[in-house]
Design brief:
The chain is mainly alpha-helical. The protein contains two helices and no strands. The longest helix is centred in the middle third of the chain and has 55 residues. About 0% of the residues are buried.
């Protein structure tokens, strides 16, 4: 691995502080975009699940209270 040879002679703070900071500055916009898309997608999935559950609840409540016929009519 050629990468370990380059970093081997440097102080620890360069390897563990400076290099990650440089990578965050360079790729920070890409990471923020990816995380934003993922969080937005998860939020939309959560909203869709809540809406579907609400519709199912309302349909069961309305059909259960207003309909006096048995379920075998279906």
């Amino acid at each position: 691995m050629a990468g370990k040879g380059i970093i081997a002679g440097l102080p620890w703070w360069v390897t563990w502080v400076v290099v990650p900071v440089i990578l965050l500055v360079v790729f920070g916009g890409v990471l923020a975009t990816v995380f934003g898309i993922l969080i937005g997608l998860l939020f939309k999935i959560l909203i869709a699940a809540a809406l579907i559950a609400g519709v199912v609840y309302l349909v069961r409540r309305v059909t259960g209270s207003s309909s006096s016929s048995s379920k075998s009519d279906w």
